[in-house]
Amino acid sequence: MSALLEFDRLRVEIPTPVGPRPLLRSVSLSVAAGEAVGLVGESGSGKSMTARSVLGMLPGGSVATGAVRFRGVDIGGLDPAGLRRLRSRDVAMVFQDPRASVNPVRTVGDFLTEVLRERGMSRAAAREKAGGILADIGVDRLAHRLKQRPYELSGGMLQRVVIAAALAGEPALILADEPTTALDVTTQEEVVAILDEQRRQRGTALLFISHDLELATAVCDRIAVMYAGEIVEILPAARLHEDARHPYTKALLKARPGSVPPGERLQTVPGVPQSAIDAPAGCVFADRCPVVEPLCRDTIPVLTAGVACHLEVS
Ligand SMILES: Nc1ncnc2c1ncn2[C@@H]1O[C@H](COP(=O)(O)OP(=O)(O)OP(=O)(O)O)[C@@H](O)[C@H]1O
């Protein structure tokens, strides 16, 4: 299966007064056409940075090495027109806060038809197509909705509109960065179900960023576990519980709310989450790992057969 999207030892550094420091240490991951991959890990591990790198949205002054390839083309080598084309045609992004994605004073109809109009579709045809997608995802009173402005919609309804806009452009890939974290639990489930169903029907690939392992497992084919700027394990979502080998993945699984009987104290991953910038020289997880060995402290384990752990590679 050839990759639609491929991160090849992507490293991102920012300048600091004490010299360049990493935000991503080395990210290698591929997403096939139509595949859904979940990127999970604690806050600061670099999930958003990884997704943003696909659209060339890295912090100013940062330097990226390695490569991010879309359909085999290195995104780092695209000119501004190529990057615009990638953003408007091939890859759509859905962020955590839907209100940050929309212009507050424009109507839902204008927001939904923008990409289609840019591609030369007539206003009437674009409205019909946008309305059709809204209907597909269960939005009622279409004519009324198209005239509404973002502040008139609930967070859940607005995130549905943002997902509809992403789908309207018929991208090959959707990057969804914690798309339901800002919503209440029931709405979260509905919005995730819509994203899951619609992208399956259309054969759209998905990079689904979440700190919620259960949610990612429910909608993804594979799960990539990220820690301090590196992918430490990649495995099929259906085998996550049985096949997890990395000590960090195992710790995350134990820290899930459903992993302890009701009333018992929830386990946490011992220690504090680290970013790439303060990760140790060897294995990124060495400082918190319950089975750390001397080798782990100074030698970086390479991601081999889906896991980056010295104890798993002999
Ligand atoms: N604009 C920026 N300039 C400098 N450092 C940044 C910038 N944005 C993020 N970082 C740092 O890069 C690292 C990775 O951040 P990122 O937002 O990708 O993590 P994350 O895993 O998505 O976390 P969260 O779940 O909290 O969103 C963090 O240490 C963060 O502080």
UniProtKB/TrEMBL annotation:
CDD domains: ABC_NikE_OppD_transporters (cd03257). Its main location: membrane. One of its GO terms (molecular function) is ATP binding. Residues 5-253 form the ABC transporter domain. It is a peripheral membrane protein. Pfam families: ABC_tran, oligo_HPY. Belongs to the ABC transporter superfamily. It is found in: Cell membrane. This is ABC transporter ATP-binding protein. Keywords: ATP-binding, Cell inner membrane, Cell membrane, Membrane, Nucleotide-binding, Translocase, Transport.
